[in-house]
Amino acid sequence: MAKLREIQDITICESTAEMLTKGRKEGVSTSFDRADEMKPCPIGAQQACCKHCFMGPCRLSAKAPYEKVGVCGANIDTFQARGFARAIAAGTAAHSDHGREMAELFLSVAKGENSDFEIKDEKKMMVFAGQMGIETEGKDNQQVGIELGEACLAQFGQQAGHVKGLELAPPKRFELWKEKGYLPRGVDREVVEMMHRTHMGVDQEYYNIMQGAIRCSLADGWGGSLISTELSDIMFGTPKPIAAEMDLGVFEKDQVNVIVHGHEPQLLDMMVRLADDKKLLAKAKAAGAAGINLVGMCCSGNEMLIRNGIPHAGNFMQCDTAIITGAVDVMMVDVQCIMASLAELSKCYHTKFVTTNYRCHIDGAEHVEFHGEHDARAAGIELMEIGINNFKNRGDKVQIPSTKTKMIGGFSHETINYMLGGSFRGSYTPLNENIINGRIRGVAGVVGCTNPRVKHDWVHVELVKELLKNDVLVVQTGCSAISLAKAGFMDPAIAKKYCGPGLAEVCETVGMPPVLHSGSCVDNSRILIALSEMVKTGGLGDDISDLPVAGAAPEYMSEKAISIGQYFVSSGVYTVFGVTFPVTEGTKFADYLFGGMEEDLGATWAFEPDPYKMAKMMIDHINKKREALGIMEKKERVLFDMEARRQLEL
Ligand code: NFS
Questions:
Q1: Which of 73, 210, 294, 560 minimizes the number of CB atoms within 10 Å of its CB?
Q2: Which residues line the pocket of ligand 1, CB cutoff 6 A?
Q3: Ligand 1, from 312, 476, 558, 559: best to mutate by most atoms within 8 Å of Cβ?
Q4: Per-residue pLDDT at 45 exceeds 90
C-alpha cells in the first residue's frame, strides 16, 4: 500500500481538511487518497505512448525519444501532437456540446414553445444578434430571438466560411488567423477533422497536426464557449456584482440540503425557483426540515452564483468532502467533471446521488432525466422531492464545517466596462489608462481546475498573491475562482493588504475586489471579449498579443483546460500551466509549444508547477509587453484642475 499524504500536505482549505480527516476515520476512499495509491504512468504523462491503433499500443522512451519509432513508424513528435490535438478536440467538443444545448434551449424559449425558461436580458439579445450578423431593424424581439437561436445553432454544423464570433477579435488578430488558415469553418467540422487527422495513418507531421488543433481551439473559445456564455446571460441574466457565500459551511443542519453539480445552468436555474416553491416547502416542513437549502458546486454553481448569489459549496476537489459532511440529502449532477466515485461514496452516507442528463449516466447512481426543452419543471420537482424524502434518513454522521467565506462575484465583461468607466461612460478607457500610467501593471487570467496531485488550492492562492503584490489585476473563472473566493480574495477590503500600492488605489477608488470572479469555464470567452475591448479602446497596441496580460491554469486536470489554454495562446496570450504537461522535454513538439508558436501566434505555452516561479514568468512577460509599448516607466496620470483646463482652452 502506498503511503498516504498527511492531511496538512493535501490542502490549504480548512473545511476540506476537516472532512478528509472525518472521511479517513470513517474508512472511505477519496480521490486524494487514490492519487497517492496510483502514481501516474510516467510514459503516458510525457505523451510518449500511442494507442490510436491496434498494432500497438506503442511506447517510446522519454529518455531517448528519437531512438525508436512506433510499429507504423510514427515518431515521438507525432505521438505527442496527436495526443495533444485530441485533448483539444475533446475539450472543444465538451464546451461546444454544452453551447449547443444552450442554443437549443434558447431557440425553444424564443419560439414560445418553452414556458419553463425565459429571456431575461433582451438588451443583450439585441447586441448579440447584431454581432451574429442578424438584421434587427423593423423586427420584433421574438423574430430576432428565433433568428439568433437559429444562427447560433448553425454555427455548429456550418461547413464553410468562418465562426462568426471571431469577428469580435481585434482586426489585426482576425487577419492573422485568416492569413494562416486558422479560421474555423464550423465548430463540429473542426472537431471531426481533428479526430480524422489524428487517426492512424493520416496526419503525421507534428506541425501540421497543430495547425489543425489551433483552428479547432478557436472554434471552442470564440465559437461554442462564446455562444454558451452569451445565450446563458440572455436566458438567466447577465452577471452584475453580487454577494454570496462560499465553502462547505454553506450547508444547513436543519434544512434539506440540495447540491447541483455540473455545468449546464438550466438545471440549477430551475432548482433556484423550486427552492422557493410553496408546495415543495410545505413538503420539506412536513418531512421535519426548516426549509430547502440550495447549493451549487463547480461550474453550474459558478454560473448561478454570479447571477443569483446562491451559496456555493466548493470546487472540483471538494465534491468528495461535500458528501462526507453527511448533510447532503441529494446531489444532482448533469455533465462534466463528475467523478464516478461519488456514486459509491454517497452510499457510505445517506446522500442520494442522481444523474440527470442523457449524456451522463454513472454506475450505481439513480437517474432522473431532465431536459431543458420539455417538462423541465416536472423533472425538477421529482428531483427536489428525492432530497426532501431523504431528509429523514440523515444518520449520525453529520458534521458541517463552520467555514464559509463572504465574497463578491459577477464580473461580466459588461460589468468591468461599466464599473471602471463609471455610470456616464461605460468604457475600458479607465482600465487602459491605469495600465498605461502604471497603477495596474497588467491583467492575468487565472483559471482552471483543482487536481489531487498538488496541494489543493495552494498553487492558485500563492500565484494570485504574488500577482497582486505586483499590481497585476486578476480575472478568474472555474474552480480557480472558487479557491480564491474561499481564501477571502473576493472581498474589496483585502486590496489594501495584498495588492501593490497602484492596484490597491484603483480597487479602493472603484470599490472592487482585486480578484474578479467572471463565472464558469465557458465564461473564459468573457476574458477574450474583455481583451479585445482593451485593444479596441486604444493605447495598448493593436493586437491581443501586444497587451501586458498573461494566463495561467495552475492546478488544471481536464482536457477542457488544454483546449482553453490553446485558444488563449491562439488568441495571442502567453499561457502557463502547472501540475504536469503532456510532453517529452527536448523534443521538436515541445519546442514548438514553448517557443516556435510565437512566430505563428505571437504567444506561446509555458509550464511551471511552482507558483512563485510561475508568477515571475507571468510578470516578466507583462513587463516585456510594457517595454515594447513604451509604458515601462511608471507615469502619473495628469489630473487637470480648472486653472489648467482654462489654460488649455486659450
Ligand atoms: Ni473547468 Fe468547470 Fe472545475 Fe476544471 Fe471542471 S468544474 S469547466 S474543467 S474541474 S475548472
A1: 73
A2: 263, 298-299, 316, 337, 448-449, 478-479, 520-521, 558, 560-561
A3: 558
A4: yes
pLDDT at 535: 95
Residue 647 is predicted with a pLDDT of 54
Residues 563 and 90: their CA atoms lie apart, in Å, by 8
How much is the pLDDT for 246?
A: 97
Q: Ligand 1: which of 297, 306, 335, 337 to mutate, most ligand atoms within 8 Å of CB?
A: 337
Residue 635 has pLDDT above 80, yes or no: no
Q: What is the 299 CA–ligand 1 centroid distance (Å)?
A: 6
d(CA 130, CA 144): 10
Provide the 8-state DSSP code for 505: H
Give Cα 52 to chain centroid, integer Å. Answer: 29
The pLDDT of residue 426 is 64
Strands 58-59 and 49-50: antiparallel
Distance 18 CA to ligand 1 centre (A): 23
Round to whole Å and give the CA distance between 62 and 49: 10
621 vs 635: CA distance, rounded Å: 20
pLDDT tens digit string along 417-428?
777 765 555 678
Please give the distance of CA 645 from its chain centroid, rounded to a whole number.
Answer: 46
Q: Which of 336, 518, 555 to mutate to test the pocket of ligand 1 (most atoms within 8 A of CB)?
A: 336
CA 313 to centroid of ligand 1, rounded, Å: 14
Give the domains, in start order, of the chain with CATH numbers.
76-236 (1.20.1270.30), 248-393 (3.40.50.2030), 409-631 (3.40.50.2030)
pLDDT, residue 415, reads 84
Q: Which helix (H) or strand (E) holds 126?
A: helix 122-131
Judge whether residue 640 has pLDDT over 70. no
With helix as H, strand as E and coil as C, how does 606-622 read?
A: EECCCHHHHHHHHHHHH
* Lowest-pLDDT choice from 74-78, 171-175, 312-316, 412-416: 412-416
Q: 478 alpha carbon to ligand 1 midpoint, in Å?
A: 6
Torsion 165-166-168-169 (CA) sign: positive
- Identify the three-state secondary structure at position 49: strand
pLDDT at 645: 47
